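lol ok so funny story. i was supposed to be doing the assay writeup but got distracted and ended up predicting the structure for this chain instead. priorities right. anyway since i did it might as well share w the group, maybe its usefull for someone
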Amino acid sequence: MTVKSYAAMQAGQALERYDYDAGPLDAEDVEVEVEYCGVCHSDLSMIDNEWGASTYPLVAGHEVIGRVVALGDSAKNKGLSLGQRVGIGWLAKSCQHCDACINGEQVNCQKGKVSTINNHGGFASSLRANWQWAIPLPEKLDVATAGPLLCGGITVFKPLLMHNVSVSSRVGVIGIGGLGHIAIKILRAIGAEVTAFSSSASKTQAILDMGADHVVNSRDPEALKALAGQFDLIISTVAVDLDWQPYFNALAPNGKFHTVGAVMKPFEVPAFSLITGDHAVTGSSTGSPGQLRKLLKLAGRANIAPTVEYFPMSKINDALDHLRAGKANYRIVLKADF
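and the output, tada:
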């Protein structure tokens, strides 16, 4: 079948209309008609080949909400049905048989992992993914805002699972943007005590309204110093280098500093920042199909919805320019209009 899409033909160029022949549907795959697709900074990184892993033409988009319109022969008995609404995030394929996949760590698959973008992503009329990466949407989930949960949401939800965050946990979030604001909403639903670290004083009331218990000016050294020894977990969502030592000092005994922001400069971590207090510095990528299902169930039950603004997909270059300029109201979602 012919898929209508918007693709980058070369690194950094504006996207162009690009129609391609998808070929036969693989036995393990599903075809999903796109209704909504979030726009993420990772899309820009792939479009611009910042990570050196892009091939062109490149169809980005990996926060997809849509309906199943075709099932491969081996996908027909896997719990999905025609017309069912599903979400597809960062990954489209994994081998299903290596040790990582068998252990439920499909994101670490070493034999057959393929990103959604490298499989032709969701800036399109439809896309394909292995059946296990087509995540069923709970009925109560708001489909128009759900797309960013499949990348930004799972990125900040996974550390909470890894570090056993509960209602008694004290958690700090550095950077209240596209990732950080979702982290606050999830943590509020869990019941943890949340402190937001923000450099924008003008955001204070909005951050409190999201569910943060405290907002700290990340540019105030004395305010950071006063938090020494408090946090069970600090999640950094920023992609810029900071003075990290005040945050290491803010960890409680056995506290963890966890980064999901792609900071390109190496972290400088003095040994005694880890030794004293039994601290650790950790990181993570996207989540497994099982973790994605848990997040969407929680979001449906607790009414967790990212803050988004909408563009028609035909205005995709305007949406990308809006994101590049730092003007996005937390997250951008495209409405398919082919």
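The chain has a mean pLDDT of 96. The longest helix spans residues 289-302.
back to the writeup now i swear
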